[in-house]
């Protein structure tokens, strides 16, 4: 349970900082997926006002990350930029080496914010994985595992993984995680007909962009729960966060008129309101006891059984090690 029951959908970053006024000061903070019109930029600018010791900003595009860094003028805040493609295992390995080589003993807060959504046609990453899966899950897990030793050295390490209520569209498809269409899909791995109907998406078992996105977010949530379980007894933990519906570049793969219709029909948030739940997950000390939880509108919320199943989380952890070729040591 979060410390502030009065927090909700309208809570913004200033409200959270007011509740935890010294929680960022002097800390080393890492934010992935930083670009001017995204939540990563809002996070970076807002966190800088709280006087962290070091802000590590990452992204694929040097011009975009540097544009955000250039907007930050808080005296005394050191900024380091690390460029990498989170969909690429090789690029992640290079970034992990660079980050682990920084002259700081620990990383206190990690915001895994990088992601893609609703890619119209099935696309594979450089390593041969469906692009949502590669970016929103496999890359996230591989990167997090790589920098985990630094996070565990923090007095209160916190990993915040940005997910979505779109997870409800699909369980993890162990039988066809890459959407190759090979064989029959077991019923418990099929997309949710009820959720697809609610989102206005025709049911199908092949590649459907929101379903691929949903599967990747389910995977991130299962990973977060298993990671938090394995971190018990340490100073670190991990949580999943649904920021809300916000107009950012995350919608870039969809036609502008479709995006406009969606945003006008759903309760939306400002960027500051969008990062509020992320900040609560990172800063609220009471949530140390809620490791692995999913937060929405600044509060811990329940999820579908398939997104919190311990056996599935363990199975996914083992599969992820095989797919990435790395042992996820905690």
From TrEMBL:
Belongs to the short-chain dehydrogenases/reductases (SDR) family. The keyword Nucleotide-binding does not apply. The keyword Oxidoreductase applies. PANTHER family: RETINOL DEHYDROGENASE, RETINOL DEHYDROGENASE 11. Keywords: Oxidoreductase. Pfam families: adh_short (PF00106). This is Uncharacterized protein. It comes from Paraconiothyrium brasiliense. SUPFAM superfamilies: NAD(P)-binding Rossmann-fold domains (SSF51735). Transmembrane segments: none annotated.
